[in-house]
């Protein structure tokens, strides 16, 4: 695919009032979610849960894409329809998680490195055939007195660059996700410094490695004080810091930027997204949401693994999507949560 087509494909994920659902939990993470609601950790329960999400009526009003895990992109509904066909029929573009998770970064205590490059091009070719038009790779950075180290930032950035180059060769838009963790006692200012540094380095390496910045999407953390910091950042503070970081560290020609929720409550994630959207016109690229936990927590709770709760769970999903859709337009008001 030409650079122009990759850019057009990246841009097609950004439509007013729409975002991306991150339903790409690995088996381990999905089992943790099922365990939290007392549901057996079985392949069939994971399939039923994904079926509930992908078949929920009217989600296409709020979604341009859904990130899937390897098992889901191959899975089917009760009547044998592949999940990807269900999504494509609704105009929702399948995105595939292609990293193979993180492992200890030897020599750098407390830090992790993302794996999954071996055989990646062949996997991407297969995913393209299965219907994926974008692929996601997540690197993780934690903030502490001594982290993230330069070595962890560089090693992860080189892996992100190689993955992005392979995606583009396979006509797939890379969604590069350098997540700076919310967990920790760091201040908002520290989060801003670290996120600016990580993004600047990563984009330097992506450019040096000759990847096409116009044909990729950045998936990033919002900039906020750590979960254990004495003071919770206000939406206005989060928005100002996030927009400053994006404005200074992200090349203006990038295809677009999406936000992860990172373990914030669903309400905070929506409020912060809303505040960011109000400042977004100052940025040279489009932005939207790509939440997992901040969309899925209320759905899992409403479902509880019971057949008779599916409709309620799908309504909970639609409600969260609608709230985030409003936030994407800067029109969210917490009073709408009950209305
Ligand atoms: C759904 O979680 C994704 C996969 O994580 P694991 O490999 O740990 O199972 C994750 O990459 C997700 O897409 C993003 O981090 C955004 O999720 P949140 O919950 O932060 O919005």
What does this structure look like?
Helix content is 45%, strand content 14%. The chain is α/β, with parallel strands linked by helices and 339 residues long. The strands form two sheets. Strands 1-2-3-6-7-8-9-10 form an eight-stranded parallel sheet. Strands 4-5 form a two-stranded antiparallel sheet. Strand 7, helix 8 and strand 8 form a beta-alpha-beta unit. Helix 11 packs antiparallel against helix 12. The longest helix is centred in the middle third of the chain and has 21 residues. It is globular. Bound molecules: 2-O-methyl-1,6-di-O-phosphono-D-mannitol. 2-O-methyl-1,6-di-O-phosphono-D-mannitol binds next to helix 11.
Short description:
With about 350 residues, the protein is α/β, with parallel strands linked by helices.
